[in-house]
Every structure is written in C-alpha cells, then in structure tokens.
Amino acid sequence: MTLRTEYPRPQFRRDEWTCLNGEWEFAFDDDNRGLDEHWQERTDFDRRIQVPFAYQSKLSGIHDVSRHDVVWYRRYFVQSRPDDGNRVLLHFGAVDYEATVFVNGRQVVHHIGGNTPFSADITPYLNEDGEQSIAVRVWDPQDDERIPRGKQYWNGPSAGIWYTNTTGIWQTVWCETVSAKRLDDVRITTDIDRGLIRFDATGAGMRSGDKLRYRISYHDVPVADGELTWRSDELVWEVDYVQNHIFRTGFHNEDEPLWSPEHPNLVDVAFDVIDGGDGRTTDHVDSYFGMRKIHIQNGMTYLNNRPYYQKLVLDQGYWPDGLLTAPDDDAYRKDIELSKSMGFNGCRKHQKMEDPRFLYWADKLGYIVWGECAAAPAYTKSAVDRLMREWQEIVDRDYNHPSIVTWVPFNESWGVPFIRSNREQQHCTQAFYHYLHSIDPTRLVESNDGWEQTETDICAIHNYSHGQSADGGEYAEYRAMLADRDGLLRHPSTCRDIYASGFSYQGEPILLTEFGGIGFDVSGEPGWGYTSAANEEQFLKDYARIMDAVYSSKALWGYCYTQLTDVEQEINGLLTYDRQPKCDPKAIKAINDRYHTNRIVQ
After folding, report:
1. Whether residue 376 sits in one domain with residue 307
2. CA 78 – CA 358 distance, rounded (Å)
3. Residue 546 has pLDDT above 80, yes or no
4. Which residues have C-beta within 8 Å of that of residue 498, sequence separation ≥ 6?
5. What's the pLDDT at 427?
6. Dist CA 543 CA 536 (whole Å)
7. What percent of the chain has pLDDT over 70?
C-alpha cells in the first residue's frame, strides 16, 4: 500500500501529476563505492523501502536505526517521452541531506540541503519506449558539523533532547508533464493597509505577446480578474481589493477576507498561460492566499492591526512510526485540531521546516506558525553558507502561506556557541535577521530564540525554573521573574543573558517561548520531563500553577508551552507520542482561556 498520495504542493496545483511514493529498491553504501562502481546503473539493490519514509522509521519497512552515511534508491516507472514540446519535471519534496539524482543512468540534478524541495527537467533523459528508471544517491554524514541537523542525534540511539536520525527521502517524490510555455512561480504579497495584492510571477518559455490570465474568488464568488502580456519571463502587477468591494467595514470579522486563527479566510486564485499566437491555454495553476499583516508596535504584537496575544505550543514534528514524516495527511490536520481544542492559536515548529501539507492545514484551519530551520552543531564558514542557502529556499517555498508569521533562524545559540561576546557570530545572526527581512518583508524575525539575542523583532525567553510545586521558593522566584519587564530582562533562568554583549532591549514584545515541560507518563516507558506529575489531577494542577504565573505577568505578550507531544524518551507532552490526550483537552483549554486573547498589556 502506498502512503502519502495527497497532492504535495497545495499552493501551486496542477491537475496532471504522478505520485512516485511507494516501494523503491534500496541499498546501504557503507564503503562509499556506489559512484565508482556506477550504482546508478545497478539493478540488484538488496532491500525494499517505502518512500517517503526514512530507513530509520517503521513505516519505511526497514526500521534500522544504525548509522549509514550513504544510501541509494532505485525506482522504475512508466513515463512517455513528450513529442509535442511538453516537458516532464521530476520533483523531490525533501531529501536529507545531499542528493544526486540519475534518470536512466544519467545525472539530472544535485541538491544540498535536507529541508527544501528541488526538481529537474528530465525530458532529455527519458527513454522513448516509456520505461524509465530513477536512482538517487544520498550522503548524510552524522558527524559533519557543517550540516544543519537540528534535533537529530549524532551519537547512537536517541537520548536527552536528541532524537532518531533521518537519512534520505522524507517527503513526496512526484513528476508532472507541463508545457514548455508555463508558469514557474508566483509570489503573492498582501497589503491590508492599502487593500492591495501584489503578484510577482515567473514564467518559462514565454515570448512577446503571450498572456497571463488570473481570476480571484472569495468564498466561490468571483471578485477580480485580468489579463496581462508577458514582455519577459517576469510579470508584476497589483490588484486593488477595495476597488473590488471586498473590504466593507474595516473591522475584522467573518465577512472580511482577512486571515487569522479565529477567521481563517482564504482567497482562491487561478492562473492561465495563453499562447499569444493561437490563443491556446498552455498552463493552468490553482493557488490561494490570505490577507494578513503581522507587525510590532508599542511593545506588542499586532495581527491585522489589532493587538494579538500568541498562545503557542512547541511542536517537534515527529511521529512514532514515521519520524519526521507524518504517516498520512490527516495526521497534520489532527495535530492542529487537537492543539486548537486545547486553546492554543499556533505553534513554534522546533528545529524543523515542516511539510507544505502541514502549512496548508494551518492556513485552512487557522493556526499561526513560527518557522524554524534545523541548526548546525558548530560555527564554520561552510555551516553559515549552507544555512543561508537553505533559508533562501525555505522562504521561496513558504512565502505565500499566511499561517507563518515569524522566522526563527537561530535557537539557544546553537550553531553560534560564542555569540555572547564573539562579534563574528553576532554579525552572523544580524546578517540572517536583515537577510530574511530583505527577502520577506511580511513577517517578523526572531534572531536567537531563548537568550543571547542581537537584533530581533521579538524578545523570546526560555525559562523552565518554575519548580515542582506552588509551595516552594523556586516557584515564588519564578513568578517574580515573570511579573514585569525588569524581572524578565535582568534575571535570566540560566547563566546566559537575555541579550548578547553590546545589545539590549529595544522595546520589542516579550514572549516566554519555552517553559513548562511537565513530565506525565501514561505509557509505562522510561522518560523524562522538566518536572513530573504522578497522575492526571496533579498534571492539571501543575499546568494551572505554571500558567497562572505566566498570565499574571504584566510584561509578557505571548508564550510557547513545551510541548505538544511526547517524543521518544521525552514525556513532557500534552499528548502522548501517538497523539492521545493525557487529560481532557477541554480542561487544558479552560486554563488557557483564562487570558483573553485581545487584552492589552500596559
């Protein structure tokens, strides 16, 4: 049975595509002989694997967690070679870490980066008889300090805060037949202050006189359309939403097209490429966007020009049978629905750029997301270069998702271990802060989540020092630390200052972005949490105690609780690893709802 057959790119949809997930041939190449021995032409791989699940996972059918730095895949498929000028594109959602792809024995693409998609035009490499083969070599050295690996453990079985590795293909593989004259990409930027939508489109094979038609609809009602002429391979235009009578009251409610967790209004848009010579439609793409604005002002976060208190939960994005890969599309939806049922309005995806299908459900269901890429374990020029390249591809992939409101390029000084006083590493985080703003003006950037921050839009603090009970002095100190701005900024819970040397608080919103972590074991398996609870009653009492300290703060403008689910040896989730609530979600929601989301903190 082939899993993960849903369309993998929900914001750029074409009707004709072929899913290449399912059973592939597979082999370990522990001696790294494959390239010298031309394994791209080999036909006797000794294993079978279910793509897109990494060989370390149960769903892969292999479930081997031992280290193998080089692996190979092979798949045969039927694809006719177009004789009408069309092209066949081969797509990979993500391959961890460095992939070399061969079609019929010839290399078609080489990609570095474990979190982002890549593709190749394989038309010239196809056999005329329609029988095709794909071979993929993956290189994923576990101890290479240049490579962003995030939570993947480099030293044997998972332990502490580190989890099982992921090597190889872990998102969908697919191909599509497209016209040589087609749409390659559309970047959609919304401006709710002026009521405008800007489109930046890129095409392929365009000639002067070719057209692009667009049709915008809201709740299935047409609201705007137009036709433009390609003068080059790029087109830029704006649509006035006010002129098209979409904004009516100026207030955010269900009748307005603004996107928020409370009202996740999405706007559909369809694109057609028209041949200027004969008027044929050569390409059709369906997409969507959300009218959304996020900004900071007066020490608060504003969503759509209204103060907005963020109630986030830390989400590691692991599943017991699939590891980094969800077992099915419904798993993404279920995680969001469970989180919202407990009173959270978003998540911080921790050390992982999630599958676009998760972001689709976040857009559709109304769930804000902080996007955080996996960190490198050390600071080197090559590590910085690799991370910068991945972030460019991340923004390219995810720019149009309204659910993403914040980018987090660094966490707890991972990859920049001497940032407290090292000016070079401080410059690095400043460079990422400005670079992300330069290629994406629509989102906030948190420079180094947790401590030792430099330039940043949010002051994000980690603090687990809330003690085991309300009776201890540690808890009283915790409440005092959270109570006001001075306590938060001057009394960090660790030996690391809130800001790096030479930097200081500049009035940005303060959020408590890691805390909690109550270890409540319902599985009987050994594990750990930052505190522990023996039963459901104690768990809820402890959760209420910790949240009472957070909600009593006069300075916090949001939080991110650790964490949504148990993960392997960590049992500090609100849900078990297999997504079973540890207590009634309504009980958690009742505690979370003690703070009104639109309360303004002075």
Report:
1. yes
2. 30
3. yes
4. 451, 452, 453, 459, 461, 488, 489, 492, 505
5. 98
6. 10
7. 96
CA–CA distance, 52 with 55 (Å, rounded to integer) = 9
Question: In the structure, how many helices (H) and strands (E) does the chain have?
Answer: 8, 32
Same domain, 465 and 533: yes
Residue of 315, 308, 320, 404 whose CA lies nearest to 356: 404
Question: Judging by DSSP bridges, how do beta strands 196-204 and 234-240 pair with one another?
Answer: antiparallel
Q: Are residues 300 and 285 in the same domain?
A: no
Q: Decide if 460 contacts 467 (C-beta within 8 A).
A: no
Residue 312 belongs to a domain:
yes
Joined tokens for residue 571? 């049992």
Give Dmax (Cα) for the chain.
80
Instruction: Identify whether residues 251 and 305 lie together within a single domain.
Output: no
| CA quadruple 335, 337, 340, 346: dihedral sign | positive
C-alpha 88, offset from chain centre: 27
Backbone phi and psi for residue 529, each to the nearest 5 degrees, phi listed first = -145, 170
Burial group, residue 311, by CB count within 10 angstroms (0-12, 13-18, 19+): buried
Instruction: For strands 404-408 and 310-315, give the pairing.
Output: unpaired
pLDDT at 133 (0 to 100): 97
Report how far residue 89's alpha carbon sits from residue 123's, in angstroms, rounded to the nearest whole number.
Answer: 7
Domain of 121, CATH number, reads 2.60.120.260
* Cα 61 to the center of its chain, rounded Å: 26
pLDDT tens string 173-199:
999 999 999 999 999 999 999 999 999
- Mean pLDDT, the chain, as a whole number? 94
Give the pairing type, strands 459-462 and 510-514: parallel
Domain that holds residue 285: 193-289
Instruction: Out of 254, 272, 289, pick the residue that ends a domain.
Output: 289
pLDDT for position 252: 45
Q: What is the pLDDT of residue 601?
A: 37
With 90 as the cut, is the pLDDT of residue 243 above it? no
Tell me, what's the pLDDT at 244? 59
- 280 and 311 in a single domain? The answer is no
Q: Is there a single domain that holds both residue 280 and residue 336?
A: no
CATH number of the domain to which 221 belongs: 2.60.40.10
Please name the amino acid found at residue 183.
L
447 vs 507: CA distance, rounded Å: 15
> Which residue in this structure is represented by tokens 């794909």?
134
Query: Which of 254, 289, 324 finishes a domain?
Result: 289
pLDDT tens sequence across 81-128 = 998 889 999 999 999 999 999 999 999 999 999 999 999 999 999 999
Q: Which candidate, 93, 82, 97, 69, places its Cα nearest to that of 21?
A: 93
186 within some domain: no
pLDDT band at 596 (very low <50, low <70, confident <90, very high): low
* Predicted pLDDT at 249: 39
Q: Please check whether residues 168 and 212 belong to one and the same domain.
A: no
Question: How many domains does one find in the chain?
Answer: 3
β-bridge mates for residue 28, sequence order: 71
Q: What are phi and psi of 49, to 5 degrees?
A: -135, 145
Residue 108 lies in a domain: yes
User: What's the mean pLDDT in 317-324?
Assistant: 98
Q: Which pLDDT band, with edges at 50, 70 and 90, does 523 fall under?
A: confident
Predicted TM-score of the model (pTM): 0.96
- Shared domain check, 82 and 217: no
